[in-house]
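Why should sequence recovery work at all? Because a backbone constrains its sequence more than one might expect. Tight turns favour small or flexible residues, buried strands favour hydrophobic ones, and helices have their own preferences. The token representation captures these environments compactly. In the example below, the structure is given first.
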């Protein structure tokens, strides 16, 4: 990859005409990035390939996104704009199991866009920063699972480190499928959830005063 020009913000540029050409071009380009990334990984992702697939002049792509890092950063920003809501099954164990199931499904689909996007973030500081923001937002959204569990009396009535609990519950899925690259285990989402809930009930995630 050539030396990148000056970086651009990871946040999407505001549309001057909501629903107009600017929004359509962004949607076309980001759809093309998803497809190119899923098919060829980061190594096959080029500005020219994205422009061709999107049916957009490459000058437009360069002008708005500058480089591949800009495309990836905007793609992650767009993911954060999706109106996603954490599961609400009525129990912490059920919520974490449902969350892990969603994660597992996103990692095992072929080709896995989620895995390709994570891998690509290692090649671009701008994309890595955008991915960190996306993860921060998702974990913050999911903290309500712990808040509801506390309100239902499922956990000790003490200040709880919700972020650490969520990481402990979801980490086994990423470990098995992304790091170890093992075949998906249909029992893993629930088993990982149960382990985290048991640890939380025993006070493992209580914040120390």
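From this structural description, the recovered sequence reads:
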């Amino acid at each position: 990859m050539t030396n990148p020009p000056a970086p651009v913000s990871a946040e999407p540029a505001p549309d001057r005409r909501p629903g107009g050409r600017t929004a359509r071009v962004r949607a076309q380009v980001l759809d093309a990035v998803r497809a190119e990334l899923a098919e060829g990984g980061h190594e096959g992702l080029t500005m020219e390939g994205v422009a061709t697939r999107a049916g957009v002049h490459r000058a437009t792509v360069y002008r708005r996104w500058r480089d591949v890092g800009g495309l990836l950063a905007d793609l992650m920003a767009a993911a954060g704009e999706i109106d996603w809501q954490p599961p609400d099954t009525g129990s912490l164990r059920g919520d974490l199991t449902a969350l892990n199931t969603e994660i597992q499904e996103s990692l095992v689909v072929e080709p896995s866009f989620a895995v390709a996007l994570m891998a690509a973030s290692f090649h671009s500081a701008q994309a890595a920063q955008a991915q960190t923001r996306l993860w921060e937002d998702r974990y913050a959204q999911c903290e309500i699972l712990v808040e509801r569990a506390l309100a239902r009396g499922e956990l000790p009535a003490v200040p709880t480190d919700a972020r650490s609990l969520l990481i402990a519950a979801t980490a086994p899925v990423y470990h098995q499928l992304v790091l170890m690259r093992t075949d998906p285990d249909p029992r893993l989402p629930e088993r990982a959830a149960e382990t985290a809930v048991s640890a939380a009930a025993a006070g493992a995630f209580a914040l120390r005063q």
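A few observations help interpret the result. The CA atoms of residues 87 and 119 lie 27 Å apart.
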